[in-house]
Please model this.
Amino acid sequence: MRNRLRNRFREREFQVFHGLAAHCRKTHDPRTHGWSPVRKKDDRPTIADVARQALVSKATVSHVLNSTRFVEEATRQRVLQAIAELGYRPNSIARSLTTKRTGTIGVVISDAANHFFGELLRGVEDALADSNYGLIVCNTDEVLQREARYLDLLLRQQVEGIIAAATSQSWRVLSEAETRRTPIVFVDRTFEGMGGIFVGVDNVGGAYYGTRHLIEAGHRQIGIIAGFQR
Model:
């Protein structure tokens, strides 16, 4: 009983101390005719701010955010309320330094105005919808220098995978180590000697079998309608 009372007293003392500290950091806001915390204009709330307002440790806030440990419902709701009031968002950059994961996928397309790539992006987003991954889209517009720059950008951003409609063989500069760290899937087109997985239509095979069918049917004057070729 004595230990229980001592623990309750210490918890109450902790709450009073942080309540006073929070009060000292407040100033009058003429816009709201009330009191609001002093914050710099560009100062974003941190996990420490959330912990301070919710009267818990930073570890407890982390457990609430990541569901890594059981937290009593009353405490959990207090943390969530502090997060909402402060407008706190976890720092994904800091998290990636710890987890070695960025939660992002890069997509490189050659023509954003092409309906095919619009459908491709829709499919990628649908596939990622339940995986909590973000998407970085790069449009090369068939410019080789831009494609090389985007490739370097995605690797520096440490995306966890790349889906690419390659414009050139510049992707061959990737070392084996880089392709092990960042898996690449090529779509729509590929080049001889390029590694990685390819997903696309066999245009050459389709043209061959279509032409052969027309010839076997007795046709000799055969035309083809294709899209714009650069």
